[in-house]
Amino acid sequence: MKPLIRILLLSILSITVAQANPQQDKMKSCNAEAAANNLSGDARKDFMKSCLSATADTPANTQQARMKSCNAAAGEKSLKGDDRKAFMKNCLSNGPELAGNTQQQKMKTCNAEAGKQDLSGDARKAFMKRCLSAK
Question: What's the pTM?
Fold first, then answer.
C-alpha cells in the first residue's frame, strides 16, 4: 500500500511541477514572437507590454499587438504617406520584412527617397551610404 501512495504522491507532484506558471509561459511565447518579428527598442517594449497584458491569445489580441508594434516601428523610421502605408501593409501581413529595422527594408526606403530626389552617380552613392548607416 505504501508504494502505491508514494507513486500517487510523486505523480501528483510531477503534474504540479509540469504545469508551469501561466505568466511564465506567456512571457516565453511573447519573447519568442518578439524575436521572430525582429523587434527591438520601443517597438519591442510596446509589443511585450501588449502581449503580456492580453487576456487570451486570440487572433484579435495578436493582430492588435502586431498593429501596435508595426505602428511603433513606422514611427521610429519617420515613415509618411505611401511609404508608411506600404510598410504597415507588409508588417501587418507578416511579410518577409517585419516590423524590425531590417537592412532590406532600409534599402527599399533609402532607394525610394533617392529616387524621389532624382539622385544619380556619386550623389546617389553618398546619399545611400548616409541613409543606410542612419538608425
Answer: 0.30
